[in-house]
# Entry
Amino acid sequence: MKPILYLLLAVVIWNLITFLMMGFDKRRAVTGGWRVPEKRLFLCSFLFGGVGIALGMSVFRHKTQHLSFRILVPLSIFLNGAVVGALLWYLQPWK
# Structure
């Protein structure tokens, strides 16, 4: 399998994990108990998990009123896309 496919698979799995992390944090917010720190959510978002965090915000209606999440999560998605685009341009897997 080509390395670019491994990278794509890893990003999809990571975004699934970050999506589930948002669901876990929402459940803990409702029931009480240990929560996922916001710093960790932001770190996961900027480490190619922004789409999962954004989907989790939407599906679970979690952290949607926090201005920091409304600004930084889309920013992380944009920056992650720029990095992936640059990698694709550099590797040019279509050639």
